[in-house]
Design a protein that fits this description.
The complex is a heterodimer of chains A (about 375) and B (about 350).
Chain A (H helix, E strand, L loop, with lengths): L3 E10 L2 E11 L4 E5 L6 H9 L6 E6 L2 E2 L10 E4 L11 H11 L4 H14 L15 H14 L4 E5 L7 H18 L2 E6 L2 H7 L2 E6 L2 E6 L1 H6 L4 H6 L6 E11 L2 E5 L5 E4 L11 E6 L4 E3 L5 E12 L3 E7 L6 E6 L9 E6 L5 E3 L35
Parallel strand pairs in A: 3-8, 3-9, 6-7, 7-8
Antiparallel strand pairs in A: 1-2, 1-4, 4-5, 9-10, 11-12, 11-14, 12-13, 14-20, 15-19, 16-17, 16-19, 17-18
Chain B lengths: L1 H40 L22 E3 L5 E2 L4 E6 L4 E6 L4 E4 L17 E3 L5 H33 L5 H8 L1 H4 L2 H11 L6 H9 L12 H29 L3 H10 L3 H29 L3 H7 L8 H11 L3 H32 L2
Classes of the chains: A alpha+beta (about 375), B alpha+beta (about 350).
Bound molecules: adenosine-5'-diphosphate and magnesium ion.
Adenosine-5'-diphosphate binds next to helix 1 of chain A.
Chain lengths: ~375, ~350
């Protein structure tokens, strides 16, 4: 149906520049998620696409047409808002039909569209109710239904699930994924929740302070983060960072020292590093092994233990400024005060130079270019990360 | 468990009464007592004259068919009557329903044509009262309607995002903040036919050829009073409406923009239904105020028949004519009119709340 293209988009509120030059290609049928910390400009960027805010500079096109100066209604978009934005004095049916009625569509076609949307979203029983008589999940479904009846080229979602409780959020997440499949529509989705981003997206756009940090498939961001910000933002618990220095380099590796005296040789394109450079070593909690093993070990003492049943998080003091988080098995017997040896596999390590830019890994992860739920390579249009 | 809960409930109820009591006592003293007194005076012929005796006269102050009430004479224990067809002086005593000769105090021999003597009297047959009811109603309906429309416009403007709107909000309140006596007097001077600035401006602009006596001219007096009231009270209305506008869910409006709804449709279909409850409250506040309007009219036009409101009428009876009984009857009727208006308004409002889609 439609692709969306952003070219050097800027947005300022008065003196304050909020969006600082965003380039992005959203292809037809793609599910793109904007993710980033609160206040980074995700909603603003979405509202620029919707036409609810004026673009300060740059070009926005939808379906090949520059739409900078078109009002929202003429852009072929529909938007689902965080707090649903239902008209409180209208029934579910009227909420969905309102836009169509004012667009002077025939009674029959309105009934048809509203009926279809209600069936897809299982709202048929609720058509006569007012929003205040609905649960949060039902309200959000009505809001989505109101978007569907517009039959838009592009769906825009602004944190649609953030007002729902955890269980409902999981359920609605699945419904939205199914909806994307059924409707074959382009969707742009804003969230600060990386689980939503990872599970829904074909393509994730990581935003920080108004600039795009990285664009890529969920697993590309997980396995090949461009920089410290993306590495720290994607993945939960957060990646462990240790500042250290390079002791030796070769074309396809760099050796760095670990706290506790050991060293590890990381398979990265080490050519642009030299011995003595300050670097940051990043290792995800789930890649650290309790009780040694791997290519190198570092010692530490357990400070706090969090048992989640399926897994156990150990917060370890180990010669770094911050506590090191280690994900152990659910039956780990570690307790606070224990000494542990942390095992590290070289292939799971990330290396970032003094500017926080990732040093490219030698091997590309086999799943990094695979789209969500599609055959391998179906979404592999993002270029491999630059060195 | 249940025992504890009910004990807690009883404690809460008791606390509620303790907190309410001072207010209820004060209300009973300053509102309940005068109201009851006025109500009971309205069934007497009480006057402000020091040595006169007060009699219970039933509903005579409201409506009465008989000899002129002013001809009652305590010493005669009846009405003093000059019966013109016979050139006779008579006394009519209602308890025996008989005419007596003034000189002999014997029942009058000849037939008396009662229609020459008896007449309908009382508040409900007083043309001036009905004139004042009409004036008050016209004043209330027109001024509240204008205030609603203008107040809405001002509120919509103040609600829009624009620079300096907090200063505007404060500035708009000034007419409301000035005491009515002061602003009425101020307008009285501005509207003055000899030296008023309004006349100067209108003359200068060529709207009028001669100076007009706005507050004295029978055609202009009520419109002038309404204009001043609108000037004074629109801020109050717009502030109430503004408060309601600020509570409206902003995302709804963005949804409407995405839906491509025309701004006028948005106003009619979304804004109006959502602020309707607040409008209802604002209208009833203002209507109650307008129905008992006194100060503005009295300062601008005194006791003129053309602008006399129910309150001005009651004051004239009570203070100028010292007819406490009759004035109380007017006050009581005014109270009943306002009460029934309120009851009807709230009842109709409820019906609409329920039937609203
Ligand atoms: N209308 C506005 N006027 C001024 N500043 C705004 C406006 N809208 C958003 N901002 C600012 O822009 C920044 C990004 O906001 P937003 O896009 O809502 O962030 P988020 O990523 O949490 O959705 C915030 O610092 C916010 O204060
Ligand atoms: Mg936001």
């Amino acid at each position: 149906m439609a692709d969306v293209t952003l070219r050097n988009i800027h947005k300022s509120f008065g003196e304050l520049e909020i969006i600082k030059g965003v380039d992005l290609d959203v292809t037809d049928n793609e599910f793109v998620v904007f993710v980033g910390p609160s206040g980074c400009g995700k909603s603003t960027l979405l509202r620029l696409i919707a036409g609810l805010e004026d673009i300060t500079a740059g070009d926005l096109s939808i379906d090949g047409q520059v739409v900078n100066d078109l009002p929202p209604a003429q852009r072929g978009i529909a938007m689902v808002f965080q707090s649903y934005a239902l008209y409180p004095h209208m029934t579910v049916q009227e909420n969905m039909a309102f836009g169509l009625k004012l667009a002077k569509e025939s009674r029959q076609s309105i009934d048809q569209k509203v009926g279809d949307a209600a069936r897809i979203l299982q709202l048929e029983e609720l058509l006569k109710r007012k929003p205040k008589e609905l649960s949060g999940g039902q309200r959000q479904r009505v809001a989505i239904g109101r978007a569907i009846v517009r039959n838009p080229k592009v769906f825009l979602f602004d944190e649609p699930l953030s007002n729902l409780d955890a269980a409902l959020r999981v359920q609605m997440r699945i419904e939205i994924a199914r909806l994307h499949e059924d409707l074959n529509a382009t969707m742009i989705y804003v969230t600060h929740d990386q689980i939503e981003a990872m599970t829904l997206a074909d393509k994730i756009v990581v935003l920080n302070a108004g600039v795009v940090e990285q664009v890529g498939s969920p697993l590309e961001l997980y396995h090949h983060p461009h920089n410290l910000f993306v590495a720290g933002f994607i993945g939960s618990p957060k990646m462990n960072f240790m500042t250290t220095s390079v002791t030796g380099v070769s074309g396809d590796s760099a050796t760095v020292s670990l706290p506790g005296g050991a060293a590890i040789t990381v398979p990265v394109q080490g050519g642009r590093l030299k011995a003595g450079d300050d670097v940051t070593l990043g290792i995800r909690p789930e890649h650290m092994m309790e009780g040694g093993g791997g290519d190198a070990q570092m010692p530490g003492s357990v400070f706090v233990v969090e048992r989640l049943g399926g897994e156990t998080y150990l917060y370890v003091r180990g010669g770094t400024d911050d506590l090191i988080t280690l994900q152990a098995g659910g039956d780990s017997t570690a307790k606070s005060g224990d000494t542990v040896s942390i095992g590290i596999a070289a292939s799971t390590c990330h290396l970032f130079d003094a500017d926080g830019i990732a040093v490219s890994r030698i091997e590309r992860h086999p799943l990094a270019d695979v789209g969500r739920g599609k055959g391998p390579g179906s979404r592999a249009e993002t270029p491999a990360e630059a060195g | 468990m249940t025992v504890r809960a009910s004990k807690l409930t009883r404690q809460r109820v008791r606390a509620a009464w303790v907190f309410l009591a001072p207010m209820l006592i004060v209300l009973a003293l300053v509102a309940g007592w005068p109201l009851l007194s006025t109500f009971s005076y309205s069934f007497t012929d009480k006057t402000l004259t020091a040595d006169s005796e007060t009699r219970f006269v039933g509903v005579s102050n409201y409506v009465f068919y008989g000899p002129n009430l002013n001809d009652w004479d305590d010493e005669l224990d009846g009405y003093f009557i000059v019966y013109e067809p016979d050139d006779a002086l008579l006394v009519y005593r209602p308890d025996t329903d008989t005419f007596y000769d003034l000189d002999t105090d014997q029942p009058y021999a000849d037939n008396v044509d009662r229609s020459q003597i008896f007449e309908w009297q009382g508040l409900l047959v007083d043309g001036l009262w009905w004139k004042s009811v009409w004036n008050t109603t016209a004043f209330a309906v027109i001024s509240v309607a204008l205030e609603l429309i203008l107040g809405m416009a001002v509120a919509l403007i103040l609600n829009a995002n624009m620079p300096g709107r907090s200063v505007m909000r404060a500035a708009v309140l000034i007419p409301w903040a000035i005491p009515t006596i002061v602003s009425a007097q101020m307008w009285g001077w501005m509207l003055n036919d000899q030296y008023g600035v309004i006349n100067e401006v209108f003359l200068g602009l060529g709207f009028i050829e001669d100076r007009l006596a706005y507050t004295a001219n029978p055609l202009l007096a009520l419109p002038s009073v309404i204009a001043v009231d609108v000037w004074k009270t629109t801020p109050f209305m717009s502030l109430l409406i503004l408060a309601a506008l600020q509570l409206l869910p902003g995302e709804c409006y963005e949804a409407a923009r995405v839906d491509g709804v025309h701004p006028i449709k948005v106003f009619v279909k979304i804004t109006l239904p959502l602020i309707r409850p607040a409008l209802m409250v604002a209208v009833i506040f203002r209507s109650l105020d307008a129905l008992r309007i006194f100060d503005l009219i009295y300062v601008l036009t005194s006791n003129t028949r053309d602008t006399m409101s129910m309150s001005v009428y009651a004051r004239q009876q009570l203070v100028d004519f010292q007819n406490v009984g009759y004035g109380s009857a007017a006050s009581t009727t005014l109270f009943l009119i306002i009460t029934s208006f309120t009851v009807v308004y709230i009842a109709l409002g409820r019906v609409n709340f329920g039937g609203e889609r």
